[in-house]
Amino acid sequence: MTNPSEHSLPANSMAESREGDFGCTVMELRKLMELRSSDALTEINVRYGGVHNLCSRLKTSPVEGLSGNPADLEKRRQVFGQNLIPPKKPKTFLELVWEALQDVTLIILEIAAIISLVLSFYRPPGEGSERCAQDISNPEDEGEAETGWIEGAAILFSVIIVVLVTAFNDWSKEKQFRGLQSRIEQEQKFSIIRNGQLIQLPVAEIVVGDIAQIKYGDLLPADGVLIQGNDLKIDESSLTGESDHVKKSLEKDPMLLSGTHVMEGSGRMVVTAVGVNSQTGIIFTLLGASEDEEEEKKKKGKKQGVPENRNKAKTQDGVALEIQPLNSQEGIDNEEKEKKAVKLPKKEKSVLQGKLTRLAVQIGKAGLIMSAITVLILILYFVIDNFAIQGRTWLPECTPIYIQYFVKFFIIGVTVLVVAVPEGLPLAVTISLAYSVKKMMKDNNLVRHLDACETMGNATAICSDKTGTLTMNRMTVVQVFMGGTRYHQVPSPDVFPPKVLDLIVNGISINSAYTSKVLPPEKEGGLPRQVGNKTECALLGFVTELKQDYQAVRNEVPEEKLYKVYTFNSVRKSMSTVIRKPSGGFRMYSKGASEIILRKCNRILDNKGDVMPFKNKDRDDMVRTVIEPMACEGLRTICIAYRDFDDTEPSWDNESEILTELTCIAVVGIEDPVRPEVPEAIAKCKRAGITVRMVTGDNVNTARAIATKCGILTPGDDFLCLEGKEFNRLIRNEKGEVEQEKLDKIWPKLRVLARSSPTDKHTLVKGIIDSTIGEQRQVVAVTGDGTNDGPALKKADVGFAMGIAGTDVAKEASDIILTDDNFTSIVKAVMWGRNVYDSISKFLQFQLTVNVVAVIVAFTGACITQDSPLKAVQMLWVNLIMDTFASLALATEPPTNSLLKRRPYGRNKPLISRTMMKNILGHSVYQLTVIFFLVFAGEKFFDIDSGRKVPLHSPPSQHYTIVFNTFVLMQLFNEINSRKIHGERNVFAGIYQNLIFCSVVLGTFVGQVLIVEFGGTPFSCTKLSLSQWLWCLFIGIGELLWGQVISAIPTQSLKFLKEAGHGTTKEEITKDAEGLDEIDHAEMELRRGQILWFRGLNRIQTQIDVINTFQTGASFKGVLRRQNMGHHHDVKLAPSSSYVAVAPVRSPPTTSVAAAVSSPTMGNQSGQSIP
């Protein structure tokens, strides 16, 4: 695999100074990158004269890279383009306004208001009016008749306000997401060699001609050609749909494509295509073109009522799902094709969303029925009263006046509906989530999928990695075993014979990735900085402690001179490097987990540095006396060994033959101290009812020691610590298939899983999620940092990736990125998640009280007095305050530590608990009693004129103004009651910490004063005296006192109270979900009873649909990185693929993405087939 370095170029500055253009054009390079394997090799060798000549045409040096001269970089950007794909234009404010106007309830109101407006200008011929109906005021009151148009105009105006508020919310949400997106993008950097220095460069700044260093776990940011590679294997499934890893080498296939994952090995490549010219970019461009054509189809499709399924919480597109504005209709067509093409395993929406959707649909239905009955009763009463009882005849000239009455009734009916449908719910959810996401940034949680935020609040189990999450990921060698002696601290170098010292230094310096380095500390007196793999950094630090210089050895043996490298992977659990010896023959250095390497050793060095035989008995003694004691102190043991090949060159591909007969040099014990804040965080999790399990690749003794230090295990507990092998033996049947019953016996007691493979982690997570034992189903969060954690992160309800140590692949599969790699941040995420859930419950409690009261008042008022005591415009104001402002106030409550003192809600707990139901009904009783008293006896109490049964266009009465004012003030004080939903007495606790809440309550109060005092006819209000105001306030404050009375009633005694807003049961899912891509509860409900105007909760996550064959991330800056890991890994990594591929119907909420199955061929939908 060595690379002849004769062709290396003159120094890069000279290469770049040659004038004129580069030796190849963008199109030539594009064509080159479309070739594969042998065709590509031929093209490179014949046309360009090999990779090194290609580098010289691109004016770059394969060793030094570009010089980084700004003028040169700019020129390259102009000729070859930038490494970013231009984002889709965000929707303009006007488009969002147009979308908000599509709401059916609003359209009905607009139409009714316009009819009312037109009719109000009609005057019947002089004589007719008395004959038409006695209720119409006398024509002498010209001034009053003139004001007939005001109501219609006021309704239109209120609709405009509601639309603008909605559009503004959508717009600001869109803006926030764009910000979040760019933040995620800036996080991604890549290793580039410039001027001979390895630097971390943001992906967007990479140019054609750059030399990139690639290693295990990278997601390639641009297309390129391999210059030098060690054991390189790439997962190209995101482009080709083939799940097998493709071997890359100079002799066979040197083409590396953007958006593919490095699964093994390392190497260097020269960048040949970036941005829209890279393979990923070409596909994006095709997508953009095909989307415009789709628009037309979509419009047609919508008319025929294509079922919309637009909130896949985690679609194929990895990141930027929620970045589209709300009701985007994208991808319906694509999705239809997709449904036919691939039967995907079904997945549920997020826990909260499922519950909310069902609840909102039920409320919507109830409101619809109530409003229909209201209109019917009003019309019937009017007709019977006028034409039957009073025996009038229908006169042609009176028709417009009768129609005016009917329109008024219709408006009342629609108003009831407007108040009943809780369209503030999606808004509350959105605001709450967006607010939490913003705040979680400060707590080191970078949320990539919105729904993960609330799912985290329901988490019942966390499967955590050990290294870096529970520990500090600052490894140091603290013990050494060498030549039969165990040193409890690192000895001085003169203890070792020179030849042994030489072997140790070479074995570590050469046989570790050259990207791992120990750099001097940034601050005086600080610790040295560890760059790269932390275990390797510990070993390099050990070399430095032995007063040797690893860099000198590396300079002597540069990467080009390495003959063969077997890189570390999760199967080998070791790394070996072969070099040529000056005297002829080869030497291989190996290092890895001690029990694995020792099994392959048959010789060992003694204290003089001579080779001794090493038998099985010696090995067992060593494990017992050296390795186990080290492991029990929580140390990770690494064995360093070597082997010489002096005779003939062996066949390097036959790994099992090569990696045997090693000679053990030394065993070192590496300490990775537990983070000081972790034990407290784990104690918090236990109090909060969350089980923490540790899943690690380390040996069982090390894992047990660390778990005990963290507090996962406490002495005297009856919990299991298993190794991967033992775990598999216990859960699989004779055929090697995982059995859920067997797994159900193990997982409740399992706390530590050691020496586990990625498959074991995936099996455990899947088993816990699918398990149905216990009173509630589990919601599982998983942390991971390596490429191999991808499947488990995807399967989990919430996947946490490490921001510092995590590979791109892990970040890609995750929902939340921990920017500080710290376990305590997960606990903060739990707190925020629970807070989101509680905020939404608070809002529900408030909203439903208003809904119940307003609907009943409008309904009974209309039936008894032929007119709703609350007018349409007043209802719209109530709707605005209780929906938009209250959702702002209640959704932005900051979390408190008390949230971590209760058990998680889990999947099946209803949204509206008994306590909340008690509060809703209790407050409704109080409000209804007060309002009915005011409507039917208020005029006597206040000694004013009655406002009941007034003629059509009469001026507003003080009576009904008092009713309206009292109603709003009661809501205002009830909003304070709604701050607590678990029956707490002190509703004012911490109210000053929430400025938004205080300002919303004050603002609403000021608004109400202005409406009553200056609203006049449009709001059907008239001025009130001070004593009337004080009475209204007194009744409002009564709400707070009444709240105390309600909380004194024990909920247990109210057995008759039902809970509402349950999660979906499994049977229902199975029955209803046939033929559905994803279990969308809204759709099921809608199919059961077609409610036209249910404005979806689907607002939270709307999707950008990317062609299903190519699962990419979003089309936003630098997004060459966002490919999905693809479902096939699940299949590949599990020993029995059928078990994983067919996910059971009851699979958990959307975070479990088994649905990103890519279709095997690429291109037929995008209009160009890419070979």
What does this structure look like?
The chain starts with 11 loop residues before the first helix and ends in a 30-residue tail after the last helix. It is built from 40 helices and 26 strands. The longest helix is centred in the C-terminal third of the chain and has 43 residues. The strands form four sheets. Strands 10, 11, 14, 15, 16, 17, 18, 19 and 20 form a nine-stranded mixed β-sheet that branches. An eight-stranded mixed β-sheet has the order 8-26-25-24-9-21-23-22, with helices on both faces. With 1171 residues, it is α+β, with helices and mostly antiparallel strands. It is elongated. Helix 10 runs parallel beside helix 32 and helix 14 packs parallel to helix 31.
Q: Report the C-alpha radius of gyration, rounded.
A: 36 Å
> How much strand content do the residues show?
5-15%
**Main structural class:** alpha+beta
Span between termini: 27 Å
Number of E-type strands: 26
Helix content: 40-55%
**Which shape, going by the Cα principal axes?**
elongated
Mean pLDDT: 75
Taking pLDDT < 50 over at least 5 consecutive residues as the criterion, the unreliable ranges are 2-20, 135-145, 298-348, 1065-1171
DSSP helix count? 40
Biggest sheet statistics: 9 strands, mixed
